[in-house]
């Protein structure tokens, strides 16, 4: 016998009080986290991230540091996160299964991003590696949950999947650059392969990671394309600043060009795959 209160297959369940709490907390928390991050990054004056920690994260700090214009992607990411915060708070989205599964994690990611900027501004470069690794892990949880559940609308695919794709792709490249910066700041030396050798290894690792992301997100078009575009963007700016400027290294530059192309192609191919569910 079927209960009269049963939810029909495919229907969105009725909102619970916890859904309303989540919507409000995520909206307020996202706005505070984004504002804190923007202030800490120097958007309203103060020290820009690339100038903090004695320049440990500047474009000239290591051969895998992206050129400064690469960081303009944050404007797009923050705009997307703001759109997400507004989208998820709309009453009709209160009981969305995908938002229930991801909204708290997206907020945690934004808080970690703000924390990372604070740590860098404080000059704690080794700690920044731990924070950005946690940030990437949280984003990975979001990606896994987005892949498991089909987007409920085109708008959701763009606002949630597209934004988190760009966010995750950029953080993937930034994590590798952050590791290199921490090693250089700690005076780790050339560790056998030399600066160029290790930089090529890290760039190659980014290319491999982009393919792994593409394979996992295949069929989730906005998510796969967002990750591919952001990783390609970051790697391309590593190439640009290695071809010119005070830290020229054409070996790393060409490796970054190849890795950027791999990330772009992988993302596009994954985005054109048909969803399996």
TrEMBL record:
Q: Where in the cell is it found?
A: Membrane
Which UniProt keywords are present, listed alphabetically? Membrane, Transmembrane, Transmembrane helix
Q: Is Ribonucleoprotein set as a keyword in this record? A: no
Domain of life where this protein originates: Bacteria
Q: Give the stretches traversing the membrane.
A: 24-49, 69-90, 102-119, 125-147, 159-183, 195-216, 223-240, 252-271
Record's bilayer topology term: Multi-pass membrane protein
- A Pfam family cross-referenced in the UniProt record is TspO_MBR
InterPro entries xrefs: TspO/MBR-related_sf, TspO_MBR
| Family per record | Belongs to the TspO/BZRP family.
Protein name in UniProt: Tryptophan-rich sensory protein
Q: Which organism is it from?
A: Cellulosimicrobium composti
Taxonomy of origin reads:
Bacteria, Bacillati, Actinomycetota, Actinomycetes, Micrococcales
